[in-house]
Amino acid sequence: MRFVSTRGKAPAVSASEAILQGLAPDGGLYVPEYFPYIPLQQLSRVTSYPELAFEVLSPFFVGDELADDLAEICVEAFDFPVPLHWYDQKDSVLELFWGPTAAFKDFGARFLAACMQRLLNRRDRKLTILVATSGDTGGAVAAAFHKRPGIDVKVIFPEGKVSARQEQQLTCWSDNVTAYAVEGVFDDCQRMVKQAFMDTSLVQEHGLSSANSINLGRLLPQMVYAFHAALEVHTRTGKEPVMVIPSGNVGNSCGSYWAKLVGAPIAKIVLALNANRPILDYLSSGIYEKRPSIATLANAMDVGDPSNMERLTHLFGDFDTFSANVSAQSVDDATIRGEIRRIWEEKHYIVCPHTATGEVVRCNLAEKRPTVVYATAHPAKFDTIVEPEISAEVPVPPQLARLLDKASSCKRIGADYHQLFS
Length: 422
Ligand SMILES: *Cc1c(COP(=O)(O)O)cnc(C)c1O
Description:
By secondary structure, this protein is an alpha/beta fold. The protein contains 18 helices and 13 strands. A hairpin with a 4-residue loop joins strand 3 and strand 4. Helix 2 (49-57) crosses helix 10, helix 13 packs across helix 14 and helix 15 crosses helix 16. The termini are far apart. The chain binds pyridoxal-5'-phosphate.
């Protein structure tokens, strides 16, 4: 199996090479050259999530240097439960928040870290991972790479612009992880990372690399839980579900479109967006325009120019095919608040603001088919938004409690990338 660039001007590479490179040399994103078909009978003997991950991912690693490690990587990366919470015989929530940092980013970050570690060991190379973060990504990447020999992680966030619990998850690691609180906004952090990557002597000296969601190693594992959920719904109801996915950079939804292509029993995929809606505007006008991002309650979805849009347009080719396959709805903050309250009152279930956008879309769809909403983060990460709506405390899950108890430290720096290396 080879992976090609969405821009078509870079040589095809193996999965491992794509993971090590991150971005393709022509500036495009790596996508599979073709989508293998996995018949459902092949999955009938699967008894655990890591086994399912192995079956779904192994066609993408045929001939790759990690092929023989893949089973072990899946066991190592996916060592937490992935339950469906059923409201009734038809509708369910896919809880993607039982990993170490209580958001779905753990799936991609842990798989990527397990792959990178093995690739580096073979090459006797060292690596420094830079990650600018406004929310969940930095914590998941830090957790996944924490204490991995030969890999340093620098987490860069805007001082005072992330919630207290988010900041704790960025700053509680120490050892090989250093957190930098930058005097500035998220865009400053992102600019510093870009500038560091353009500084060729720095890149060489430190072996700089990135772990953001354009990396193939984060996207591939996000196919697996789509498969997992669709299979459970299919087994239980005999029907194919509609998947509703709270989306920002559309990595999560791209993984699910890929899963549908390789044979996951999925009827349809619908994107739930917050006020950041360039994809919705594209669907109505046929013209894609990036926008400045708008701050909302569902802050991990505050993306004005989704990085994985390039993978989706590559997948569907022309606009007609795109609009036949992609549908989306946008949800405003007042509706998000009301939905957190409604789900609590009607279902006695607590959702985070991102998941709430999915619940609104599910409600609007009024589907006869089973629907699955992806719960992308645990509500305890967003206690200050959720608790006033439900007039109760959100119980903190054990993995999050462990992180909140740890000592934290960070370096305060100006918005100058040189300070990351001094
Ligand atoms: C990252 C994130 C999203 C958006 O996922 P994309 O893959 O960027 O579309 C949604 N919810 C939460 C909680 C997230 O952390």
